[in-house]
Amino acid sequence: MDKPSFVISPEEAESAANELGVSVLQLLPSLVNPAKSYARPPISKFHVGAVGLGSSGRIFLGVNVEFPGLPLHHSIHAEQFLVTNLTLNDERHLRHFAVSAAPCGHCRQFLQEIRDAPEIKLVITDPNAAADPDADSDGFLRLGSILPHRFGPEDLLDKDFPLILEHHDNNLTISDLDLICNGKLKSAALAAANRSYAPYSLCPSGVSLVDCDGKVYRGWYMESAAYNPSLGPVQAALVDYIANGGGGGYERIVGAVLVEKEDAVVRQEHTARLLIQMISPKCDFSVYHCH
After folding, report:
1. Active-site annotation holder among 11, 12, 79, 262
2. Residues contacting residue 153 through CB under 8 Å, at least 6 positions apart
3. Most buried residue, 106, 123, 247, 263, by CB count within 10 Å?
4. What is the pLDDT of residues 47-87, one digit of tens each?
5. 3-state class of 180 per DSSP?
């Protein structure tokens, strides 16, 4: 597994762990440095890798991504990338993850949108990080121990509301007439909007991208109870592109579609257009409204 993919099957994980004589859980920290090589931080030059184990037995990678010419808040944090990778692959729970540097407050908050977030176990692989007395024998500690006084979905939502990794359908539609033009991309963006996690604003949205080879990528808006750590739909679609686009540059993205509600109080159009134009100036960008 010299070049790990962004999703590693349970069989591949077991095989790699057996080769090293460790458990799959103990394998996670060894994958962090390889994951860091996939990061795209042209501003900070600070590479972050996160490697998570889902309840399915699959392993998922996350990396940080920065965009020159744009405000820093457009960046994708490695933990956000990891969670997005989980959602794109229908993973229902994150059990453990290893990360190259201590999660920032932004990421500790974003992770709260996962069910039972305080019980997620993490290990920080930074050799300069101080040993934590609360860590278990494998070096993992509870997420709740590094965000003890949490604010999260249970403060704003009903306890049975589907959270960020759980199945839900927003039941959004676009008129058949609208689907005729740009149909493939628009259908993908609508499907993404229907998976959007926007319980606080009730303003779901989705984005689809197409590269010069005709391959389609998609992502959806995901909110945080604290608002600011929310991840935009273009960033989510770029996670799909980075993970599955073969490592190409953004200039290979030639088309983009955003689907959102026309009367949304939280609108993505202007921010999405700005980001797309900055990373791929020749990309055709269209917006369609759903209901």
Report:
1. 79
2. 112, 113, 161, 163, 199, 225
3. 123
4. 999 999 999 999 999 999 999 999 999 999 999 999 999 99
5. helix
